[in-house]
Fold these 4 entries.
Entry 1:
Amino acid sequence: VPGDPAQHLRHVEKDVLIPKIMREKARERCSEQVEDFTKCCKDSGILMVIKCRKENSALKGCLTAYYNDPAFYEECKLEYLKEREEFRKTGIPAKKRLQKLPTSM
């Protein structure tokens, strides 16, 4: 809804907080490439810069595809807005809320 204050984003939200969610989600979705690159680095030691180019390129390609996807940005923005709205209602940050859930079961 245009002009809806619940949808308004401050610069820090647009430039820092939503990209942080995007990075976290993209790393989850590119977990295979993250794993391959991590394994290559562990196995290659000091030569990882040379030896892991293929894995690094695959990981960068996967992450960049998400970072440049407007639909993915929207998905992360909506997730952020939902968390923010919940925080404004409860005063409890999402991370603490999620940690507290299992103990009440």
Note: The two ends are 37 Å apart (CA to CA).
Entry 2:
Amino acid sequence: MRKQESEGANHDFESKSSHNGNVKVAPNDQSFLTILDDIKSSKSPAVINYGASWCGVCSQILPAFQKLSKSFSKLKFVYADIDECPETTRHIRYTPTFQFYRDGEKVDEMFGAGEERLHDRLWLHSS
């Protein structure tokens, strides 16, 4: 569920992401808009992980998301924290939410965690 106020935003993810996989982190709304424009104008498949620093399930799946980004090099991996990007993630009602894009269009969505489920969806959208 979305939390309206962040209780001390956790910025650990940004430092971890630089050496854990090929995940592009959107630190704010403007950056996320740029990333979304890139995804929508690209032919490359992409997955966006919408999470939150206060979400325990999000924190549990994040290392797997980072690890899987190394295995599925055809996909662009993006992480957006709903508290860091409040305007551009307003439509997200559950964390984590994974959205899958192909040829610039959203083609699939997955709610909740589960490394095996995520792996299967990534495999499906990377071929």
Note: The chain is about 35% helix and 25% strand.
Entry 3:
Amino acid sequence: MMKLIVVFVISSLLFATQFSNGEELESQAQAPAIHKNGGEGSLKPEECPKACEYRCSATSHRKPCLFFCNKCCNKCLCVPSGTYGHKEECPCYNNWTTKEGGPKCP
């Protein structure tokens, strides 16, 4: 039962981040300064909440998005730019998966 709940939450989170109503920023110049350097290890642990706040700003599943984003950021010290996609900017963030093989990070 717990596995089913975890799979449902992760699936919902992924669906919400992929098909949210939020719009991407049009240029890197508009992005918060926290995202301009990019790349793995580019953030300090204390910068994760702000980066994740922005990353999860367009989803309707904010609470699980923030939880998993902060967990991933604290491990990888990186959050992809924008509110969805761009995971190639952070290989650790992109490649961290659940036991079922799905992506762990939003």
Note: Helices lie at 2-18, 48-55, 62-76, 91-95.
Entry 4:
Amino acid sequence: MPKYYEYKEEDGRACGGVREDLRQCLLESPCVLRENKSPKQCLKEGHCRSLQITFFACKRSMLDTRARFRGRKGY
């Protein structure tokens, strides 16, 4: 189960769950903790790639007119 659902407040923004999980993944990655790089640099290097793709798909589905019927991607 994603960390978002475990004792967290509801984020009213779109794709908030994916955003929170991506943020936590980046902050807990060895790139940030051991190498002292910024989360932005680690994201460019490919860390937490699956969450980044999920977040992109969620944001893209907001612009898709078919999302009215299918719902937003992600959680």
Note: Residues 31 and 37 are 6 Å apart (CA to CA).
